[in-house]
Specification:
The protein has about 400 residues and is α+β, with helices and mostly antiparallel strands. The chain is built from 11 helices and 11 strands.
Length: about 400
């Protein structure tokens, strides 16, 4: 994130509240190399925090309210420490859920300005960055001394309260990310293995389709319901699976006999995606980025055909990247139905290549697409923050 943007946020804070901020927090977005729709099935994921994200600047006030201003949206919301009875939409809805789950531990009125450069609705967890960053800044101002696992728990519960019944990957990564590393995360027990990414011939890009998704309004929750339904059928059929994560590739043929469509394909994606995550880690250990690229393509095909969460714009971008020999592999990233594609490349993309991509995409869909180079970054807990005065 640019210094200019931070200075704009700081100036906005002073203009609104007639004082300098006392506390700050940066919540990064999240990229996921591979492991999609596996987290809420107790599976494996392989994400990292990115350099783009959201800054939160805050100071204490003497009122019984928390006043929050969105720099990007140029609007403000106010929340009572006594608890909210009003119904909120947009970004205030996430903050109201944070306050709901932190009450009654919040006793201090706060002035807050937040803003950033993470794409909204782009599949890089902008909503989770908002939720996690708000928990952190409120925790600082109220001296709550929140442990990392408690922050993750609170963030997940808050987002569930908005209607998106996701897993823990986004929140865990945003809070615990480590610079230059991806995390192999076991979503069942939250154990992690840090994997350092190569420093040469290994670059990541996000390309935003410009198709924004609201996961509450898509079939995201339906996919989770279908996974739960499939698990119940398996358990009633005599299988001792605790979650879809416990199913092996060898057992899929037998399950096809008891699982109707499309439930069987949903299960096949989750099982095969967990396998691809583990093979991805092996590829990195062996410095085999070419094979890793093949796994990314396999992940996209599975998300497109078996899980049915892709769209024409995402498919076009994955196919477009295949035509350049300096790209190892690509796939859709995030909940789906729009958002970003992630691309693993052996070299940086030239300005000419990016401009041609954007031109061809505009001619095909009539939409501007944003291209962003990303690198693994520190999460909230690893970043230096100024202390309370």
């Amino acid at each position: 994130m640019s210094d200019a943007l931070f200075q704009n946020l700081s100036s906005t804070f002073e203009s609104l509240y007639y004082s300098k901020h006392e506390f700050e927090s940066f919540a990064p977005g999240r990229a996921n190399i591979i492991g999609e729709h596996t987290d809420y099935n107790d599976g494996f994921v392989f994400p990292f925090a990115i350099g783009q994200g959201i800054w939160f600047l805050a100071s204490k006030n003497q009122s019984a309210h928390i006043s929050v201003y969105s720099y990007n949206e140029s609007n403000q919301a106010q929340f009572s420490l006594a608890g909210e009875t009003a119904s909120f939409a947009g970004w205030p809805r996430f903050i109201s859920q944070v306050l709901k789950h932190l009450n009654p531990t919040i006793t201090q009125g706060i002035n807050i300005v937040f803003g950033g450069d993470v794409p909204i609705g782009g599949g890089v967890s902008s909503s989770s960055a908002l939720t996690c960053g708000m928990i952190d800044i409120i925790g600082q101002t109220n001296e709550l001394q929140l442990l990392p696992e408690k922050m993750v728990e609170l963030a997940v519960r808050a987002e569930h309260g908005t209607g998106v019944i996701g897993g823990i990957m986004d929140q865990f990564t945003i809070i615990n990310g480590v610079n230059n590393h991806a995390m192999l995360l076991d979503c069942r027990d939250q154990s992690t293995q840090l994997i350092k990414l190569p420093e040469s011939n290994c670059h990541f890009y996000l390309v935003n389709t410009g198709v924004k998704h609201n996961l509450v309004e898509t079939d995201y929750n339906l996919r989770r319901q279908q996974c739960n339904q499939a698990l119940e059928i398996c358990q009633n059929g005599g299988y001792a699976f605790k979650s879809l994560r416990d199913i092996s590739l060898d057992e899929l043929d037998n399950l096809q006999l008891i699982l109707p469509e499309p439930l069987y394909r949903r299960v096949r994606h989750v099982v095969s995606e967990n396998e691809r995550v583990m093979r991805t880690v092996a590829c990195l250990h062996n410095h085999d980025l070419k094979s890793l690229g093949i796994l990314l393509h396999g992940s996209h095909d599975s998300l497109r055909v078996d899980y049915e969460v892709s769209c024409d714009e995402l498919d076009w971008q994955v196919d477009y990247a295949k035509s350049a020999d300096f790209n190892y592999g690509s796939r859709m990233m995030g909940g789906g139905f729009g958002g970003c594609t992630i691309h693993l490349t052996k070299s940086t993309w030239s300005e000419a290549y990016c401009l041609q991509w954007q031109k061809d995409y505009m001619e095909t869909f009539g939409i501007d697409c944003q291209i962003i180079e990303i690198r693994p970054s520190d999460g909230i807990l690893k970043r230096k923050r100024i202390s309370s005065k």
